[in-house]
Inverse folding.
């Protein structure tokens, strides 16, 4: 299994670097652009939640683990923020008119739409592990 | 990055938002849009042709701007959406809620009607 493990200081200014790391990893495998965009968005939203809600201004680190398992990307985001399971958050009601929509929930919704599976676990020693799985490689066409 | 490219021509303000609109860059854009609207420029054509990427923070900025503008009987129209931005707008359930056009001229016309 090919993998990389990166650590970022938990600040919004590092979101671009997190997206770039995800895109670079996928590019190594010749992933199509729309899939790269989906991966970058999902990891951005997950990292944003950790930085903005998890650490909420406190210093900390976001660890990003990227691996290929067969045709799938397996990405993990690890933090030492208070325990919080974003997969348990309610889905936003997108049918509500603009004026009535609640502010929260959109980030996790976008993650779900752009990945195959999303799961959360408590991290040993404190914090969270968010695991995302997405098929990024297609079978090569027969010539 | 956000620029006002044409202040109040024909009663419509043209704004360009470029680069990447995520949780890092959204606060500045949010503040600029809301202050324009508070100052009475509440019909805004937002040119997104230089916007390569948007995340939920950026979507929320656009929702806030649309809400504020509509309170004063104004509106925002987005134009020049690139693939990633159009996709995220649709995934956020906004395709039927915030108007989009191809060109700035069409956006200005939509707001002038």
């Amino acid at each position: 299994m090919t993998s990389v493990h990166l650590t970022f200081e938990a600040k919004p200014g590092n979101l671009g670097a997190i997206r770039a790391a995800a895109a670079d990893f996928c590019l190594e495998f010749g992933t199509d652009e729309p899939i790269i965009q989906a991966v970058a968005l999902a990891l951005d939203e997950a990292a944003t939640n950790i930085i903005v809600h998890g650490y909420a201004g406190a210093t900390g680190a976001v660890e990003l683990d990227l691996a290929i398992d067969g045709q799938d990307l397996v990405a993990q985001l690890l933090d030492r923020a208070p325990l919080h399971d974003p997969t348990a958050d309610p889905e936003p009601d997108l049918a509500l008119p603009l004026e009535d929509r609640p502010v929260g929930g959109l980030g996790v919704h976008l993650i779900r739409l752009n990945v195959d599976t999303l799961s959360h676990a408590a991290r040993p020693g404190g914090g969270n592990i968010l695991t995302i799985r997405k098929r990024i490689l297609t079978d090569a066409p027969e010539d | 990055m956000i620029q006002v490219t044409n202040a109040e021509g024909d009663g419509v303000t043209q704004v360009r938002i470029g680069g990447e609109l995520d949780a890092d860059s959204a606060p500045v854009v949010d503040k600029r849009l809301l202050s324009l609207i508070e100052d009475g420029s509440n019909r805004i054509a937002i040119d997104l042709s230089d916007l390569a990427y948007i995340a939920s923070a950026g979507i929320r900025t656009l929702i806030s701007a649309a809400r504020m503008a509509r309170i004063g009987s104004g509106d925002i129209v987005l134009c020049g959406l690139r693939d990633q931005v159009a996709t995220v707008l649709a995934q956020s359930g906004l395709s039927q809620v915030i108007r989009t056009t191809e060109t700035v001229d069409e956006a200005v016309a939509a707001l002038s009607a």
Observations:
- The longest helix of chain A spans residues 33-55.
